[in-house]
Design goal:
CATH architecture of the largest domain: Beta Barrel
Number of strands: 40
Shape: globular
CATH topology of the largest domain: Maltoporin, Chain A
Strand content: over 45%
Radius of gyration: 28 Å
Structural class: mainly beta
Largest sheet: 22 strands, antiparallel, barrel
CATH superfamily of the largest domain: TonB-dependent receptor, beta-barrel domain
Amino acid sequence: MKTPHKCFTIVCMAIMLFSAVLFSAELRGIIKDHRGQPLASVTVTLKNTSNVTLSDVEGKFLIPIPGDMDTKGMILNFERTGFYPEEKRARLSDQVQVFKIYFIPGDYIREKISVTALDREVETISIPMAETRISLGEMQEKVPENIVEALADTAGVHFVGKGGFSVTPSIRGLARQRVLVMVDGERITNDRRVGSSASFVPPEMAQRVEVVRSSSSVLYGSDAIGGVVNIMTRPRDNEQSAPQLNAVNLNLNSVSKRINSGITFGVSAGKWYIYSGFQYTTAGDYSTPDKKINHSGYSYYSGILDVSYMNEKRDFYLGYVGGYGEDIGKPDRANDPTKYSFVPSESDHFIRLGFNEKSLVKNGTLNFSMYVNPSTYYVQNENTKKKTTDYADTTGVNMGLKTSLKKSLGESFSYQLGAEWFSRQNLDMVNRAKSGDSIVTTYPLSNGQRNDYAGFFALNWNALPTVDINAGIRYTFFSIAGDVDGVKKKKNTDSASYFLGVIKKFGSSVSLFCNVGRAFRTPTLSEAYYTGITSRKYVVANPNLKPESSFDIDAGLKFITRNCFIGLYVFSTQVDNLIELYKGANDIYYYDNIMEGKIQGGELEIQYSPVKNLNLFGHYFYYKGKSNANDAPLNDVPAPRIFVGGKVIFGRLWFEGDYLHSFKKSDPGPAEVANAAYDLVNLKGGYYLSSSLFIYLKVANLFNETYFANTDPDIPEAKGIDFSAGIHFYF
């Protein structure tokens, strides 16, 4: 009789013999990307078998080979979340094989996670509003001159301003101070008439840009009636090892002889991480199909330094991003070489500190952030025939504090509550008029101050397995004050903002949302108190301006699969006491309230990859804006636009072409002119010469179209055909 021990031994030997027959060999390999960096968490499958494994943090994997398999025709399938699978032939060898995989992103142009929309990480399908994210890779391929140009292909986004370097974004026909521009979640504010541009952050230093096309005042406060543009310069935790962070770049443009060069560099030291960078850009006067645009060149220096620390209990970061520009042209339609405006110098220095405590509250995080942002902006208007010069010098300091508690109560309910203070201090706007040897100095606004004190509460409730509810309320106390021509002025107001968004999900690919919200904006210091010189000639303040309040209804349908995204949106925004800009006699601008301004419209955006090496995309939008009092059209509402394009990828090589048609704008606002329709065709391509060297080419305005990019009466003609070339070296 056999003992249990002998039976166990026989069974084990049988299993080993059976395994030896089935799996007579093993294949070892390392997976690397096109830049030679190891790829972790890649699923490796031996084709026509059930043998599967996963690569480790060093990109290494091991997979058994069945004994009866023909090893001469082995094929490995490589899969990674968010990318198309790749296949590679393999050979049986005792050596570790290196597989370089050129993963083509399946959802590259539609990242799954947004941070800005709800002030937390949320999947696209669970966001009750229209939003877009532009990744670092996309921005490199777009070859943009500034952040606003990087958003030019985004549904619902346009720009206002005279053109040149410092243009500002417009979202769904709301612009100027109604679009909140942020850097790493902290607001940028200035007293330029067209709003903030954040031109001190070059695209090469932005990790991604997130755009929210809906009222966001509950989470971000005043000035977010039209939406939010959040420029993120700090790499996320999972981006810190990305090879694109360590790079040297050189970009060239033909039409303006623009040269941009710089370096970005990140390094880890235990739980510490340091990210730094510097960019320098210079450009001359650009050319249209017909002429050279005088005084449109500029020079700009930008830098970033970010230090962060992270462990299981807390995060900490201290950072700086800023820039200095000089001789920045402000071109106009007259294009008179003897009468022109430019900015001799401007500067923005943005210093921020943040702290996130994860262990103080169970299932919650306590967040604290603060920033200081001193800025200067000097405008100079020259008339060489009359030998006169006008100067407008603006200096001020922005600062802010925010603290919030984010907490989860189970899997279906979470909330955040907090308090925020934003302030603009020491705003001085000085005018000087020089004629011959005579200089007259005036102080139209001195010691300007603005303070916003707010408390807010927001929640997310998964009421049913397929229904999400997001809601919030904020109450803000506003005050602005200043010395206006030596007379002290002060205004106080307060208001509530609210938001309610409901999402109905149909499986994992389709969601339907609807939201309603109320937003609020108090007049800026310059709108209420500054009468003086601008690059347009002269602006007259209105101390009797009433604050704006808006009511927004927004609905949409999102369809998301691995290789397709479709978004269809409709909205209606009514702004009570809309602060409108008017152009009077002698090019003098002034402000006044409209009792009710209303903007309605719709958007369609599509991104589709029918096969792994082809990406198709496009969007269309149509907006109508008018005064409910007299049906007069509003400023800043762009003409309808259709945009389509495609991208073809062949391993290391890619090509892209796109076409934009902007329809005729025949109903300009009170400070605008009618604009003709125009068509643009752009071509671009890139090639990875090696794992660390990338080159690209771009031809913008291929058919050398003559056009005005918006309805601004002072804007010059846009650039003619423009050839761009660049090189990125990753190390």
